[in-house]
Specification:
The chain is of the alpha+beta class and about 160 residues long. It has helices at about 25-40, 55-60, 115-125; strands spanning about 10-15, 40-50, 65-70, 70-80, 85-95, 100-110, 130, 145-150. It is built from three helices and eight strands. The chain is elongated and about 65 Å long.
Length: about 160
């Protein structure tokens, strides 16, 4: 996501399911914004969503999630890491037969940054930036998920 290059330009580029939260350093978020801007057509739009720090902190404070599906078991435990990051430890116990399970485990790191910092960085590349909280009339300190819509100007420059 940080270093992609495609010969085409697009009217819309979407980054969904809080994927950008998996980019650990904010300097790399800024690289994503610059790279997306280069791949947008004049007047194009970049749409992405984020989990806010509030949401990550809520998940950290909660007990692990346990979910049975069929004879399998899923456990997700979110814990705190340094620098406001979170680790999502995901364990799937796959049922093989009566008394046998296979454990599949992965750690996924997510990080979030203040929306003002994100917006300021987007404005270095895009003419208009809009922040939407799907649960409220407008974003606030209580926002847990935000959608950001960044539109470039009609000029074809990288600006």
């Amino acid at each position: 996501m940080v270093d992609f290059h495609i010969e085409d330009r697009f009217d819309v580029i979407c980054c969904v399911f809080d994927s950008i939260n998996h980019v650990k350093r904010f300097s790399d978020w800024k690289r994503v914004f610059a790279r997306v801007r280069r791949h947008l057509s004049p007047g194009g739009c970049f749409i992405f969503d984020i989990n806010t720090q509030r949401k990550l902190e809520r998940h950290i404070a909660e007990p692990p999630w346990v979910h049975r599906f069929g004879k399998n078991l899923l456990i997700i435990d979110v814990t705190a890491l340094p620098n406001r990051a979170s680790n999502w430890n995901i364990k799937v116990f796959e049922h093989l037969n009566t008394n046998r399970y296979v454990l599949h485990e992965e750690d996924i790191i997510e990080v979030s940054y203040p929306s003002g910092k994100i917006v300021a960085s987007l404005r270095a590349h895009f003419a208009k930036v809009r922040v939407i909280d799907p649960e409220r009339n407008r974003p606030s300190a209580k926002s847990e998920k935000l959608f950001l819509v960044a539109t470039n100007s009609m000029s074809a420059s990288g600006g």
